[in-house]
TrEMBL record:
Alphabetized InterPro entries for the sequence: DUF881
Name of the protein described by the UniProt record: DUF881 domain-containing protein
Compositional bias of kind Basic and acidic residues: 112-126
Pfam family, one: DUF881
Protein source organism: Streptomyces cadmiisoli
C-alpha cells in the first residue's frame, strides 16, 4: 500500500513536472544607441520637495534681510536685558537710595531747565542785537545815500520838473540861472542837473562868452534843467509874479516847465576830500 502511494506520488510529480513548460532563456537585450537621451526616472512628491529645498538657494536680497532681522533681534535682546538689569537694580535698592536718586533727578531736571531758560534769553538778546545792528546798518546806508545825492556822488531819480530855457538872443546871464537854482532849492529841490552838470552846494556860475559856465564847465543855450522834488511846489515857485519865468521872458527868452513822475539826475561829481575839515566823534 505504501509502495503504491509512493508510486502514485512519484507519478503525480512527474506528471506535474512534465506539464510545466521548459524554461526559456531570454537573450540579453542589446542596447541600441539611438542618439536620444534616456528617459529620466519619475520622482515622487517628497523627492521633488527635497530637491527644491536642498541645496538652499539664497539671494543677495534675502541675505541682507536676514542680517537686518538678526541685528534687530540682537538689539532688542540687549535693550531688554539692559532694562531688566536696571529694573532689577532699582527693585533691589533701599528706600533711602530711591529717595536720593529721585532727588538727584529733580536737581538735574531743574538745572537743565535753568540752562534752557538762560540759553533762550541769550538767543533773544542775540536776535535783538542782530536786529538793532541790521537797523543801524540800514540807516547808515540810507544816510550815506542821502548825503551822496546832496554831494552829487550818486545818481538820483524821482518826481520833479524839467525846465528848458531857450535863449536865441543870447541875453540870459549867469546870475539869472543862479536865481533859478536858488528858487528851486528854496522850493524843496533835492537834486538839480543843468546841461549834464550836477549842481551841488558849492556850485558857482559865471558868464562865458555867449554862454554860461557851471563850476568851470561851459554850457550853451538851450539850458535844460532836470530837477527832482515835489512838482506841485517847484513849478509855482518859478511862476510867481516877478519871479524867474517873468524875468527871463523880459530878456526875450522862452521858458518851458514840464512836470514828470520820473526825473533821472545821473550827472555825478567826484568825491572830494576836505582839506581841513575832519569828522568829530563829539
Amino acid at each position: 500500500m505504501s509502495q503504491e502511494l509512493g508510486n502514485q506520488d512519484g507519478t503525480g510529480a512527474n506528471r506535474l513536472r512534465k506539464e510545466l513548460p521548459d524554461e526559456v532563456r531570454i537573450p540579453a537585450t542589446t542596447t541600441v544607441d539611438t542618439g536620444e537621451a534616456e528617459t529620466a526616472p519619475v520622482l515622487t512628491g517628497r523627492q521633488r520637495l527635497v530637491k527644491g529645498l536642498w541645496p538652499p538657494r539664497v539671494t543677495r536680497a534675502q541675505l541682507i534681510v536676514a542680517l537686518l532681522l538678526f541685528g534687530l533681534g540682537f538689539g532688542l535682546a540687549v535693550q531688554v536685558a539692559s532694562n531688566s538689569d536696571g529694573d532689577s537694580a532699582l527693585r533691589g535698592a533701599r528706600q533711602e537710595d530711591l529717595v536720593r536718586i529721585l532727588d538727584e533727578l529733580d536737581d538735574r531736571t531743574q538745572r537743565l531747565e535753568d540752562e534752557k531758560r538762560g540759553l533762550e534769553q541769550q538767543r533773544d538778546e542775540l536776535e535783538n542785537s542782530s536786529n538793532q545792528a541790521e537797523e543801524a546798518r540800514r540807516q547808515t546806508i540810507e544816510k550815506e545815500r542821502q548825503l551822496g545825492i546832496l554831494a552829487g556822488t550818486v545818481a538820483a531819480q524821482g518826481p520833479g520838473i524839467t525846465i528848458v530855457i531857450d535863449d536865441t538872443k543870447g541875453t540870459v546871464e549867469a546870475d539869472m540861472l543862479l536865481d533859478a537854482i536858488q528858487e528851486l532849492r528854496a522850493a524843496g529841490a533835492e537834486a538839480i542837473q543843468v546841461n549834464g552838470v550836477r549842481v551841488i552846494a558849492s556850485t558857482f556860475l559865471t558868464d562865458s562868452g555867449q554862454g554860461v559856465a557851471v563850476d568851470g564847465n561851459k554850457i550853451n543855450a538851450p539850458y535844460r534843467f532836470k530837477v527832482i522834488g515835489k512838482p506841485q511846489d517847484l513849478e509855482p515857485a518859478l511862476n510867481i509874479p516877478g519871479g524867474v519865468v517873468q524875468t527871463l521872458e523880459k530878456e526875450q527868452a522862452t521858458v518851458t516847465v514840464e512836470r514828470s513822475d520820473k526825473i533821472v539826475v545821473d550827472a555825478l561829481r567826484a568825491v572830494k576830500r576836505p582839506d581841513y575839515a575832519r569828522s568829530s566823534s563829539r
